[in-house]
Amino acid sequence: MAPVLFLAACASQKIQLSAAPGQESIVRDGIPSLISKKKNLVMLRPNNQLLKGNARPAFTVAVRNLENKPQTLMEANINARQTVDGKQTALRVYRYDELVREEQTRQTIQAVGAVLSATARGINAANAGYVNTTGTVHANGNYGTYTATTYDPLRAQIAQQNANYETREDIAALQAQGEQNLSQLQQTILKDNTVMPGEWVGGTIVLDQPAYSGSAPKSYAITVDFAGEQHEFLVSQTTN
Asked: Is 49 helix (H, G, I), strand (E, B) or coil?
């Protein structure tokens, strides 16, 4: 039974949206999306229609203020809930600060790994200076073999230089990737914004992977509360 659950968890999943009354189905960047029309407009689009493995579903939420005064879109006013076996439970929506802390934690773990790798390289470099030599000897009509160990400091120095270079390259790559990830979060993840009249404002929201519900589709709803209006979007994930 365990292998079946494992395969189910790792299978790709397709995200589908269902239009409710007052909503219009559209296509954005080749992906089916929804626009909810009330006093204001709210659009929801999956960032990727097909999820691989246990990837978290991510969506672009955009609002347009059609009123004659500014309105503030709050990330705390975007929530999700899942329906499993007829029961509704909250589905976590990750906030910008949470995703930043998660990325910083990931970078710290990688930095520790880089330090451990550097230590191992240093030990291997030091040991590289030892050279084992074997040979044969002939004395008094007898033959024999011998083994000798010598230490070549130049060889160890070259190995240490190579190890230091590899460590610097690894650390530089980790730092560059970490900065890029944080920059991407800053640029894409939805944060609190005041939306001026006629303006479109949006960003990405990231949800927890919905709970596994057997062969039934994973069903959940995303609610965007903007300017006193609730726009609810129905989502399902089916395993391919």
From this structure: coil
